[in-house]
Each structure stands twice: as structure tokens, then as C-alpha cells.
Amino acid sequence: MKKTDENKDQLMHVLTPKEIVSELDKYIIGQHEAKRSVAIALRNRWRRQQVPPELRDEIAPKNIIMMGPTGVGKTEIARRLARLASSPFLKVEATKFTELGYVGRDVESMIRDITELAVNMAKKQEQDEVKSKAMALAEERMLDILLPKKTEEEIDIGEEDNERTLEIVRSEKSGKSSTREKLRAMLKSGKMDERYVEIEVESSNMPMVEIFSAAGMEEMELNVREMFGNVFPNKKKKRRVKIPEAMEILFQEESQKLIDMDKVIDNAIRMTEQNGIIFLDELDKVADSESSYGPDVSREGVQRDLLPIVEGSAVATKYGMVHTDHILFIASGAFNVSKPSDLLPELQGRFPIRVELDSLTAEDFVRILTEPKNALITQYKALLATEGIELEFKDSAVQQIAAMASMVNERTENIGARRLHTVMEKLLDDISFNAPDMKEKKVVIDKNDVEERLKDILEDENLSRYIL
Questions:
Q1: What is the pLDDT of residues 440-449, one digit of tens each?
Q2: Torsions phi, psi for 419 (to 5 deg)
Q3: Nearest alpha-carbon partner for 45 in 74, 69, 15
Q4: CA spacing 20 to 30 A to 197: which of 10, 128, 278, 405?
Q5: Residues 6+ apart with CB under 8 A from 375
Q6: pLDDT tens digits, one per residue of 165-201
Q7: How many beta carbons lie within 10 A of that of residue 203, not counting itself?
Q8: pLDDT of amino acid 414
Q9: Beta-strand (E) ranges in 182-327?
């Protein structure tokens, strides 16, 4: 755990707020204010770890509300931020939750979900640390399968197309040990990858159990499954697989034996409590607008249940109690009908940072199509290159695609950069369909091609509502 702490601290020490913004700029166009806010929030986590212990627990995370229309980068900012910090990250929609006692998910389930993610992350880290040892043990087990204790001097190492048997060794002096080392060398060089071996794997013997439970009882099924798992222990069954697959199975089994699950769980709970990021999407949908009358359990009730989680409370999970005091919550919403002031005052106070994201213009669309590492045009070029098609976009074509996407957003629903996906998909529909059979392997798309292929849809506004 100490090593993990050092690595994380080193990473966070390297990434200053300016560097975090620079990393986000590689994937997200514009929205500088939002990037600044999340960069400061992320850096503050590292700063908090450096203050004296007696003050550390008193410093609360500065939760953020991002306001803006759909498709402008709110979710992508939060997702990229979590990857930069190597933190457990969970995206949830506020509308999926309901007040306790009504049909829907219990808000505490988000803490159980992010803890489960953290356990998987911690387990993967631990597995990486024991990888070399587990691989060596798996190799020994494979050699035991290939060379049983009661073995002949001649060992069959597999069948080729003509089903002939290869003789690999007939040692008079060193005997079995020499055979084992030669087998080891062949195993490492990949000469035995086509050979099949028979190995034993665990097979679950547990009966199917399905529980229909009310909100707040979501862990009951997991607990019942664990209980039945102890009553009905796993049985062994034999499988015949190729050596590479068998090595992977043996590696996983040996890794599991070497991993200290108590350490993994402790590390995962620490990661969740100190580094967890929960992205609450559609928070505006649970805000009470001024037009509503009386209490609404599907809105105000969710806010009341969210409040203790965001303020800081202890949530019971199957791995133990998890404290939410220092989990970073990033909320987002369009807030076109309601506004942040429509939230419960106590909940507003737990989101001190408000950031408004800008709507995207045609110029932004041009940059989104070409500049990011995962730019849409780069993606489509790579996809069609698998069919041997060289796709080229003229600058005029890129400008026209951006202009059309912006125009459709103005005429119909404004879905931001997601409109580019629909426009690009329609534009390249024929090429994508005919690519395997095309004789001309270079396709150049200019402004006229874009206008021609999308002309009918743009002229018919009713049709564009359904297609674009």
C-alpha cells in the first residue's frame, strides 16, 4: 500500500493544475473555466494529503456543479479527470434514484458500486505486483502437466497438420531434469502454443437464486449468493485447451493465491474514501422548479437522501463501512428548466463551485473534428483503413460538416458535439457499407460531396428530425 501511495503522490506532484488542463485539452475542446475548476479540485486532493493529520480530516472536498447543454463535454471532463488521477470513477444518473421506500435504486448503492470498482482496481494493482512470481508458478504447474512424475523418456509435444509425433529428447545422463528444461525452453519460445493440454478448473455448483427486493435491499442477493457458495463448494472439471489459454488460467489461479485480499480491501476502501470521484449526471432533473406544487418524492426525496451521502456519512458495503466525507462529487445538468437555486439549500451548500459550460459553435465543431487525439475524423480514417480504404477530408469538407451540424442543432434539439456523430455516420453510410467491395481504395471527400449526400435531409426539416 505504501508503494501505491508513493506512486499516486508522485503522479499528483507532477500534474500541476496547468498540466492537468493541458492534458484535458488533448481530448476536450474549449470549456477552459470548467477545466480550471476540476484541475484545482484534483490538485487540492494532493494538497490535503500534505497538511498535518489533525487538519486533514477537516478539509472538505470542493464539489462542483457543471451547468450547460448536453454534448458540450461535461461527462468527458469528469471521465478524463478520473483517468489522470487513477481514481475510482463512477458515473450515475440522478434520475435512476428514488426516495427510500419507493421503487427505484437506493442512493447508497452508488457508494457500493464505486467501492466495487475500487476493489477491482486494487486487485489489479496487487496482481501486477505478483505477476512475475505467479507466472513462474504457473509455468511450473504447466511443466508438471506436460511432464508428469511417472513419465516416459520420450514426450509427445503435440500434433502437426500431418499428425506426426515429434520426439524432443532422449537423454541418457540427466534424464527427467534435462527433459523439463528443454520443455521449459520450448514453452517460453512459443513452439508449443498449438498443443492442447487437459487442466482442471473450478466449476460453480451453486443453484440459481434471484431475489426481488425493495430499494435499500440490493446487497441481499449478493449475501445470499455468498452463503450458498459456502454451502455448495465449487467442483473441479476438466477442460481441454491450448497451452497459451491454459497458462492464462493457471496464472489467474496462482495470482489469486498470492494476493492478500484483506490488503486489497483495505487499499480499495482507502482509495474510495480519499480518491473516489462520483459524477452525478442530470442533477437538474431532481431539482424542484418553481412551477411544481407540493412535495415531489421523485425529486425532493432524492435530494434529501443524497444530502447525507454528499455531506459525509458511513455506508455499509459488503467490504465494510465506507465513509463518504472526502469523496469528490461532480454534478452536472442542463438546468434549462430548473436552476441550482431550486435544489435544497443544504445540498446547494455542498456544491460550492459552479461552472457554466459554453454552447459549441461551428468553429468549435471544426476543432472537435480534427484536433483531439480521439478526433472523429481520425476514428473514421482508422476504421476504414482496416478495409484498405484511404479516407481523406478536404478542409472545405470539414468546414461544411461543422456548419451543417451546427445548423441542425439550431433547427432541432441542441445535442452539442453528439450531432457530429450522426452527421458523420450519415455522410459515410455508403462508403462504410461498400468498403469491402470497393476497387478504388482512396476516397477524397470535399465540400460538394458533403452537400450532395446531406442535401435532401437538410431541405426536409421533418426528415432531419428523425435522421439527424
A1: 889 999 999 9
A2: -65, -30
A3: 15
A4: 128
A5: 368, 369
A6: 344 444 434 445 688 888 888 888 888 888 888 887 7
A7: 11
A8: 83
A9: 196-203, 235-242, 277-281, 314-317, 320-323
Residue 289 and residue 91 in contact, taking contact as beta carbons nearer than 8 Å: no
At 445, list the grid cell: 471527400
CA distance 227 to 245: 31
User: Are 108 and 39 in contact, with CB atoms under 8 Å apart?
Assistant: no
Residues 202 and 178 sit within 8 Å (Cβ to Cβ) = no
What are the φ and ψ backbone dihedral angles of 350, each rounded to 5 degrees? Answer: -90, 0
- Which residues are CB-contacts of 265 (< 8 A; sequence separation ≥ 6)? 119, 122, 319, 320
pTM (global) more than 0.85: no
Domains of the chain in sequence order: 2-126+264-356 (3.40.50.300), 131-258 (no CATH), 362-467 (1.10.8.60)
Side chain identity at 453, as an amino acid letter? Answer: R
Quick one: DSSP state of residue 164? P
Burial 101-139 (b: 16+ CB within 10 A, else e): eeebbbbbbbbbbbbbbbbebbbebbbeebeeebeebbb
